[in-house]
Amino acid sequence: MTHTSNYELLREVAFSDTDMAGLVHFPNYLRYVEDTEYSFLRSAGLDVILDAPEGKLGFPRTHIECDYAHPARYRDQLRIALYTTIVGGKTIEHRFQIYTGEKVVVRGLLTTACCRFLPDKDPYAIPIPDFIIDKLVAAGANQ
């Protein structure tokens, strides 16, 4: 079953995010998306690392793609839009767009897998627990 949620975060471009020309340095866009993902998780009552009886859970990245369409500059107001799709099974896709005003600056896709983290064992993917799906869907519906 597929579930979709939408979430947005606003932020101003800091000088430390720019290069000598005053343009956002390209890897910072991915940090903005990651900050938005974390904010979305917190709005859902979740976190980056979750404690569960069977061991810690988290969502490491398995794929990312990013297209740069227009530069953003120091002090620009950015709107980071996250469109989260629970694809079913073990995978969550976050499509994203970053805007200045109505102009798209960056668009892309971030894919994560729900993984269990146990001591002395490599992380391994598990089906996304229902309680996580329920919280993500509810948080997206409240936006």
Number of helices: 2
Would you list the SSEs in sequence order as H and E? EHEEEEEEEEH
Relative strand content: 35-45%
Principal-axis shape equals elongated
List the strand order in the largest sheet: 1-5-6-7-4
Structure classification: alpha+beta
Q: Terminal Cα separation, in Å?
A: 21 Å
What is the CA-based Rg, rounded? 16 Å
| Strand count | 9
Sheet with most strands:
5 strands, antiparallel
Average the pLDDT over all residues and give the rounded result. Answer: 91
Question: Percentage of helical residues?
Answer: 10-25%
Q: Identify low-pLDDT runs.
A: none
Could you characterize what this model shows?
The structure is a single chain. The protein is an alpha+beta fold and 143 residues long. It contains two helices and nine strands, in the order βαββββββββα. It has a five-stranded antiparallel β-sheet with strand order 1-5-6-7-4. The protein has a four-stranded antiparallel β-sheet with strand order 2-3-8-9, with no helix packed on it. The protein is elongated. The mean pLDDT is 91.
